[in-house]
Amino acid sequence: MPKITKVCKNCERVFETRDKTQKFCSHKCFHENQIKEHSATCPICKKVFHKSYKGQKYCSRKCRDIAKITTKVKLICPVCEKVFYKKQSDIKNVKGEPCCSLKCNHVYKQKYYFLQGKVNNSPLYKVWNGMMQRCYNSKQKAYKHYGGRGIWVSEEWQNFENFYNWANAHGYKEGLTIERIDVNQGYSESNCKWATQKEQQRNKRNTIRVMYNNQEMCLKDVAIAENISYKSLWQIYKRKKDINEALRICHLHGQGLIETNTSGFRGVGFYYNAWNVRYKDKYLGRYKTLEEAVKAREKFIEEYKKGQNNLP
User: How far apart are CA 5 and CA 80, in angstroms?
Assistant: First the structure.
């Protein structure tokens, strides 16, 4: 096998070898490189020492104990305001402000840490965060219906602690949602209340409101009060634009006395510039006048019933 020219990793001398994996020109360079890689300088006594394990920083236990004392930071407990000392490495691992004891840490989490909204599995924090996202995050899907059309959050409520205090003082329970009384105004104490999801659906911009029994009501509630189909009432009201007329037609239609068409006669309708006649699933033809269409349908019904009676 021919020799290969390489450069020593330690002394940078050019040498020839047949081994492709060889990095050093001699055993001396190899051992010198090992000493360099496993040696470090102690930050306390500035002494160069050989590391016995990976990540060793100090040459002895004495230097390590001195480092523990000198690297501690003076702090004030946010709960009891007591002065205490803590290592810088321990402060980095603490979420929120460090406390002097486990007891103070528990109190801090209950009062301060929770009020800042850091507990992501808190239902009330999710309500507040969703409100802020809808109004100020342009990448949020619902932004065009809230922040995009000028809906805002009051300055007081932009702090979670103030929103938390208002929610508990105004009857918040898990499962309720925040509702704006005026859907065209922002989120504030004077314009918000807690409501169920059902109540929220009745206070939308596209909700149809009508006067029923001298009071303004949602069309859905009117259908429930009259015990009729909401879909039928909505379709008739959309065409008639009069709630009393729509209710009258719905009740007559429910009794089978009238069909919702343009003529007022069952099975007769005007489309494609003519009166078209049907009976059940059968098409009976087109007529120029309404009288001809009605007579044709009545005549067909009489013949049809006679045929049914003559059946064995």
Answer: 71
Q: How far apart are CA 118 and CA 125, in angstroms?
A: 8
d(CA 276, CA 199): 44
Nearest to 159 by CA among 199, 179, 129, 183: 129
Is pLDDT of 150 > 80? Answer: yes
Instruction: Give the separation between CA 172 and CA 86, rounded to whole angstroms.
Output: 39
Q: Which of 199, 161, 158 is nearest to 178 (CA)?
A: 199
User: Does the structure show a pLDDT above 70 at 182?
Assistant: yes
pLDDT digits (tens, 9 = 90+) for 217-266: 787 778 877 777 777 777 777 776 777 777 777 776 655 444 445 556 77
Dist. CA 204–CA 147, nearest whole Å: 16
Number of domains in the chain: 5
- Amino acid identity, position 246: A
Question: Which residue's entry shows tokens 């007769």?
Answer: 268
pTM higher than 0.90: no
Calculate mean pLDDT across residues 187-201: 84
| Strand ranges across the sheet with 282-287 | 268-270, 275-279, 282-287
**Listed residues 24, 43, 62: the one ending a domain:** 62
Give the model's pLDDT for residue 260: 47
Q: Which domain holds residue 54?
A: 4-62
284 and 248, same domain (yes or no): no
* 142, 182, 240, 266 from 253: Cα distances, Å: 40, 37, 15, 10
97-102 long-range contacts (CB < 8 A, ≥24 apart) are 100/75, 101/77
